[in-house]
Structures are given as structure tokens and as C-alpha cells.
């Protein structure tokens, strides 16, 4: 419902002034806490400020704003970078110009914003930030801005310059226009079929001044806002909107992680919203767990012959969750092969393991070698100096750091050859939940599918295994997904856009069934080969090699695959499409971006198009990983279709955050705004970068 109320500029000014109490120099003040604006992101009401949130802050927002409703997620990736993803519901427009296609669905639009801090506030200087709104979509609210913010006691002042949507008031001539004529006019519309970054429009055309002030009232939960915006609403997607004044006024009430906002915009429209904030660095779950073993009054065996093997084995499981698969104990050196079953933090895992070994082994053993193995192959060797470890664990020195008593290294060839697990063959199985979702479809705004994937296999030895996965859909509403392009003349092979047929035709699906060989080829090289049903849509054969040193911030690999498209009606038959696909990939954890991994893959995609896929992943202290990817290929935006190029986002959440006991494992939640056929990677069932994760942990 759209609310219209009569209001004049003078009345608005009087009302705002009346809200601000007289300030005394001696008054104890509280600095303004930044909050979300209508479209998501730190700001006033309709305009962004230079302010940033605490690193890791995540806001979930809903606002109702007359003609518009906004759902947005705002994330502070770094203390200097903020990103916002947004869905806009335009109440005054239908989904498309074809009534029979739109039905009752109103127009939905996706938008992405990003803001960077250029200068951090000091005693004399303000925060200064530059930002880009709606830069990767259809340009509903496309804008660029530069803004400064300065706090003075309970007041936070903001002044900025806006271009595009935020600059339509055209307060004065764009200064860039004096440098180059092309900046005088802003190109209309957007390139391709949306979703493409229109660099040629940045900082062009009309420009306006905007700004405002926030006041932290003596009542700490309440903040008041006054804003002067640079948009005149003449060319809005919802239609030309009436604007009685460029002044907006609002209030924010904070309670227990929630922000409740109420505002009055354009002199005639009431808006409201709610936000919920939590921090991805600090989020945690209370754990019911025994403390690490105490070494203060431990009675150790006198010799190797007195070692209690059962106590050692059970202690490693109970106190350290280290599952022992092989052991070699000598007079001065003891080697323990196995895998960590619960503790995601490597330092915690090694300390707990070391404490068990120090209490169960005699003093003659000078070094403990804890070798983490995966799939029958030793991955990394942790070498613990027993004497230094015990001294640090007993706090014999004030400056001792127990983490300095061990180091990680590559298992040498002799150690790998000596690995003889009691059982390197046999059956294995697991069960995992899966979640598929899509937003903004004409049939329903939110379509989803959830169920269980049962995986089972047999390992013949440490190299050869056969694996299969069966998925069972439990809940979904994809039956509403009726729109198809089967009769359209598409320029690309239908490698992904037949998703409706694959999803709805079979409640039980054979996702994978393949033969796999893997091995460590040398100290730092790994290899694998596979053949069979590799994913729900494709079967074939392929191979991969990977170079990955221990604790290196760089790894690289090459995969090559021949695949054939599976039939969506008969899961054991094939369609008339086959191709080669493969990529050379570099995995980089840059030192200047802590807890970040950038993956660049260059090669040929499933539709035969060639190009690059870039994946950016940021890990927070809680273990939550937020990622985004984009594929740029030789397919034009017109041939690609709506969205112009492949892109997506994902959230990887450790199961440890939901359990009362330490645990490993993750859940993946993807968001793909629009899935088309260009830039599509083969979803290989086993990737060596995942298999060798213990060598340089990122998804720990």
C-alpha cells in the first residue's frame, strides 16, 4: 500500500529541529552507530555515507518504501570494503510486458553495490569513501558516489557527490566534463541483456550534492536522521514519482541485534524497515567438550615396553579425535598416521594430540610425528619437539608458546612408503543434505529443492575406488517452474538450461557413479583419473594433476575431460551432445588479503566457449566462507542471454556452528541469479584441491 501525506518543506524543517534537543558542551555523548539505508548498505535513508561497519558484520534487511520493497544483504568483507546484494520488488509494474507470462508476479530486479574506504577518519580528517550502486544489473538505481563523514560528539555529518540515479537533481556541471566531452552525457540503458558492468557510464552525466546528519539521542537505542538527497525521481522504473521536497527524515531504534526504521520521504511517503545484524567473525556455538589433557601430574611409562597401547589409542580418539590408522614407535622417534575427526583448528588438534602422546610415551621419545592422511595417502607431517612441548604445556617458562614447539612439513618418500594402514580397502558410505534454490522466477519469486544425497563406495586400495551417489528429493516447489525455451533457437548448446527437466522428472536420481584412481606422484605433485557418471547432467572420463606444496599460498593444476550429456528422462541414456572441457587453474591465498582465496581457471567450458572463471572466497574467524565467482568467455552478451555472463555467490557454513560438540564438515548454500549455458564448469565429483586440503587448509 502506498501512503501519501501532505507535507511542506518548512513544516519538515520545524519538525526536525524540534526533534533535536539543545546540546551542552559538558553533556556526555555517545557516537552515532551506523545503520542501514533503504536499499541496504550503511547510510542515511536513501543515500550512502562513508561509514563502514565492523569487519564481518552481516545485515539482513527488509524495507517497504511505497512503490518499492527491498530485500537486501549487506556484508562488511574487510574493514575497508562493503558489499550489498539486493532484490527489488516494483509494486507498480508487472514481471514482464506479457500479462499471460507475468500472472500476478510484479517486477523483480537484482542489484549489487560495493563501497571502498579511501581515507579513515582522524581528528581533523573525515572518513572518505567511493562507491558503486547497482553496477552489475539492469541499472534500476545505477549510481556512483564520493562521500565524506565526520563525527562531532553525538552528531555524524555526511556530504557527498552523486552521479547517475543519485545525481539527477543536476546541481552543477560535472567537473569531469571539463576534462573530456564524453563525461558530459550519461549513456542510457544497459549493455547486453543486463548483469554486465557498464564501465562506460561511471561518473558521467548529471551530478548532484547530497548529505545529511545523524543524531544519537540521549536514549541510546534511538538515532534520528535528516537527509538531503540528489535524486529527483523523474526517471524511476516505478514511474515518475512525486517529490515535494528533497529532504527526508527518519529514525532508527536498535534492540537486541535488530534495527527498526521509520522514515518520511519526498514530503509524501512513509517508509519502514527492519534489519538484523550478526558478525561472521564472532558467531560461535557453546561447546560441551573436555579440556585438553593436563600434563602437570602425569606418570609416564619408563620404556617402550611399558606403553599401554589401548590407553594410547583410546586417548587419541577421546581427547584429540585423532583416528589412528598406523603407528611406528622407535626409541627416540614415534610416527602416528591417522586423520582428524572433529577439530577444525589445526593448532588445537595438534596440541590435543601432542598432550595425549606426551602422557602415554616414555621420555626417551624425543619427537612425535603426527601424519595426517586422507584417502590412504599421507598429506602433511606435524613434527613435535617432545621436550619443548611438555615444558610449554606445563608453563615452565612465562614466554613459552606451545605453538612454537611443532612445525609442519611434507611427508618424505620414505615415510609415505612406510605407511601401511591396517585396512586400506573396504566399503564406505555417507549421507548429506543438499539445497537448490533460485530467486526471481516469474512462476514464483523463490523456487527451492531440498533432499538427501546418499554416497557409498568401495576402496580396492589407497589408489583405486568406485563411488556412487543417489539423491532423493524431500521437498521442492519446482513443479511451478513451467517456463521453457525448448522451442527457441538458442545459439549455445543447452548444457544447463534444461535444469527444470532434470530437477522435476526424477525424485530419485543417480547423481554419480564413477571409477576413480588417485596417487601422490612426487613430493608435491598429485594426480587422479575418473570415468563414469560425473554429475547429474554429464557423464564421461577425465584426469587432473595438481602441484601443491605444504603451507604454500599458491597451488596450480590442470584438468581435461571428455563428457557426454545425460538424458533427463532416462538417467542411463544420453542426449546427442558431447564435448571436451578442461581448465588450467591457479589457487592463490594472497598475503595482502588475509583469509582469502582467489581461484583463476582458464580453458574451455561445457558449451564449447573459451574463457576464464574467477572465484573469490573470504573466510571469517567463525569458519564461515562467503564466495563469489564469474565466468568471462568468448560468448557475446547477446548470445549468452539474460544476465550477459555467468556469475554466482555461495555461503559455506561449518557444521561445527550448529553442534554442541566439535565437528568437521560443511554445508554449501549457493545463489545463482541467472543460470544460462555460457561459462559453465563441469561439476567434477572429486577435485584434487579439495582432496589435498590438509596440506594448506582454507576450508578448515
Describe the protein.
This protein has 700 residues and is mostly beta strands. The N terminus is likely disordered. Helix content is 11%, strand content 43%. The strands form 3 sheets. Strands 18-19-20-21-22-23-24-25-26-27-28-29-30 form a 13-stranded antiparallel β-sheet, with no helix packed on it. Strands 1-2-3-4-5-6-7-8-9-10-11-12 form a 12-stranded antiparallel barrel. A 5-stranded mixed β-sheet has the order 13-14-15-16-17. The chain has 3 domains: 256 residues, monomeric porin ompg (Porin), CATH 2.40.160; 115 residues, GMP Synthetase, Chain A, domain 3 (2-Layer Sandwich), CATH 3.30.300; 270 residues, no CATH class.
For the largest beta sheet, what order do the strands appear in spatially?
Answer: 18-19-20-21-22-23-24-25-26-27-28-29-30
How would you sum up the global shape? globular
Note the gap between the termini: 48 Å
Number of structural domains: 3
Q: Which secondary structure elements does this structure contain, and how are they paired or packed?
A:
Elements: H1 9-19, E1 57-65, E2 68-78, E3 81-94, H2 99-102, E4 106-119, E5 127-133, E6 143-152, E7 155-164, H3 176-179, E8 207-216, E9 222-228, E10 247-255, E11 258-265, E12 269-279, H4 309-320, E13 322-329, E14 333-340, H5 346-360, E15 367-374, E16 377-385, H6 386-393, E17 406-409, H7 413-418, E18 426-439, E19 446-459, E20 464-476, H8 499-505, E21 508-520, E22 525-533, E23 538-547, E24 554-566, E25 574-588, E26 596-604, E27 610-619, E28 625-633, H9 637-640, E29 646-654, E30 666-671, H10 688-691
Helix pairs in contact: 4-5
Amino acid at each position: 500500500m502506498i501512503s501519501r501525506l501532505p507535507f511542506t518543506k518548512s513544516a519538515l524543517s520545524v519538525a526536525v529541529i524540534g526533534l533535536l534537543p539543545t546540546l551542552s558542551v559538558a553533556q556526555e555523548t555517545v557516537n552515532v552507530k551506523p545503520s542501514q539505508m533503504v536499499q541496504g548498505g550503511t547510510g542515511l535513508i536513501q543515500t550512502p555515507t562513508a561509514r563502514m561497519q565492523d569487519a564481518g558484520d552481516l545485515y539482513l534487511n527488509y524495507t517497504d518504501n511505497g512503490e518499492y520493497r527491498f530485500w537486501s544483504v549487506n556484508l562488511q568483507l574487510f574493514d575497508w570494503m562493503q558489499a550489498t546484494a539486493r532484490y527489488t520488488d516494483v509494486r507498480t509494474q508487472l514481471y514482464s510486458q506479457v500479462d499471460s507470462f507475468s500472472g500476478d508476479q510484479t517486477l523483480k530486479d537484482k542489484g549489487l553495490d560495493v563501497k571502498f574506504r579511501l581515507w579513515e577518519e582522524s581528528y581533523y580528517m573525515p572518513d572518505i569513501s567511493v562507491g558503486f550502486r547497482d553496477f552489475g544489473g539492469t541499472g534500476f538505481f545505477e549510481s556512483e558516489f564520493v562521500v565524506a563523514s565526520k563525527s562531532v560528539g553525538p552528531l555524524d555529518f555526511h556530504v557527498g557527490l552523486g552521479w547517475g540515479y543519485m545525481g539527477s537533481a543536476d546541481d552543477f556541471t560535472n567537473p569531469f566534463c571539463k576534462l573530456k566531452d564524453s563525461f558530459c552525457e550519461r549513456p542510457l540503458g544497459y549493455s547486453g541483456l543486463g548483469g554486465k558492468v557498464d564501465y562506460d557510464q561511471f561518473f558521467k552525466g548529471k551530478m548532484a550534492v547530497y548529505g545529511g546528519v545523524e543524531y544519537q539521542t540521549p536514549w541510546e537505542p534511538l538515532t534520528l536522521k535528516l537527509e538531503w538527497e540528489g535524486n529527483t525521481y523523474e526517471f524511476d522504473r516505478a514511474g515518475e514519482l512525486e517529490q515535494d521536497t528533497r529532504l527526508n527524515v527518519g529514525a532508527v531504534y536498535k534492540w537486541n541485534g535488530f534495527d527498526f526504521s521509520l522514515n518520511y520521504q519526498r514530503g509524501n511517503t512513509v517508509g519502514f524497515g527492519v534489519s538484523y545484524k550478526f558478525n561472521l567473525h564472532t558467531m560461535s556455538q557453546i561447546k560441551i567438550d573436555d579440556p585438553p589433557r593436563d600434563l602437570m601430574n602425569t606418570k609416564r611409562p619408563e620404556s617402550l615396553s611399558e606403553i599401554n597401547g589401548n590407553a594410547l589409542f583410546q586417548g587419541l580418539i577421546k581427547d584429540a579425535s585423532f583416528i589412528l590408522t598406523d603407528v611406528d614407535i622407535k626409541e627416540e622417534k614415534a610416527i602416528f598416521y591417522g586423520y582428524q575427526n572433529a577439530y577444525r583448528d589445526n593448532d588445537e588438534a595438534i596440541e590435543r594430540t601432542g598432550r595425549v602422546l606426551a602422557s602415554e610415551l616414555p621420555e626417551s621419545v624425543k619427537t612425535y610425528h603426527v601424519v595426517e592422511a586422507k584417502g590412504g595417502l599421507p598429506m602433511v607431517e606435524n613434527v613435535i619437539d617432545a621436550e619443548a612441548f611438555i615444558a610449554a604445556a606445563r608453563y615452565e617458562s612465562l614466554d613459552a608458546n606451545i605453538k612454537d614447539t611443532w612445525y609442519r612439513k611434507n611427508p618424505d618418500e620414505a615415510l609415505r612408503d612406510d605407511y601401511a594402514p591396517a585396512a586400506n580397502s573396504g566399503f564406505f558410505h555417507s549421507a548429506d543434505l543438499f539445497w537448490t534454490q533460485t530467486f526471481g522466477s516469474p512462476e514464483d519469486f523463490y523456487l527451492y529443492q531440498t533432499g538427501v544425497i546418499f554416497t557409498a563406495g568401495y576402496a580396492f586400495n589407497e589408489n583405486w575406488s568406485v563411488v556412487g551417489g543417489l539423491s532423493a528429493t524431500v521437498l521442492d516447489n519446482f513443479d511451478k517452474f513451467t517456463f521453457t525455451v525448448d522451442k527457441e533457437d538458442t545459439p549455445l548448446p543447452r548444457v544447463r538450461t534444461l535444469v527444470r527437466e532434470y530437477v522435476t522428472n526424477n525424485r530419485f536420481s543417480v547423481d554419480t557413479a564413477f571409477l576413480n584412481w588417485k596417487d601422490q606422484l612426487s613430493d608435491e605433485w598429485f594426480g587422479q583419473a575418473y570415468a563414469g557418471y560425473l554429475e547429474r547432467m554429464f557423464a564421461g572420463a577425465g584426469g587432473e594433476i595438481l602441484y601443491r606444496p605444504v603451507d604454500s599460498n599458491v597451488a596450480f593444476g590442470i584438468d581435461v575431460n571428455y563428457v557426454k550429456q545425460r538424458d533427463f528422462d532416462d538417467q542411463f541414456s544420453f542426449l546427442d551432445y558431447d564435448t571436451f572441457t578442461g581448465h588450467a587453474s591457479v589457487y592463490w591465498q594472497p598475503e595482502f588479503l588475509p583469509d582469502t582465496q582467489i581461484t583463476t581457471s582458464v580453458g574451455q567450458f561445457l558449451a564449447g566457449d573459451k574463457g576464464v572463471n574467477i572465484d573469490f572466497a573470504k573466510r571469517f574467524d567463525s569458519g564461515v566462507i562467503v564466495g563469489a565467482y564469474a565466468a568471462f568467455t568468448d560468448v557475446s552478451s547477446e548470445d549468452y542471454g539474460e544476465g550477459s555472463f555467468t556469475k554466482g555467490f555461495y555461503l559455506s557454513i561449518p557444521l561445527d556452528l550448529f553442534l554442541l560438540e566439535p565437528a568437521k564438515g560443511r554445508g554449501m548454500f549457493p545463489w545463482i541469479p541467472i543460470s544460462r549455458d555460457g561459462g559453465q564448469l563441469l561439476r567434477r565429483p572429486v577435485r584434487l584441491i579439495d582432496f589435498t586440503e590438509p596440506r594448506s587448509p582454507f576450508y578448515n
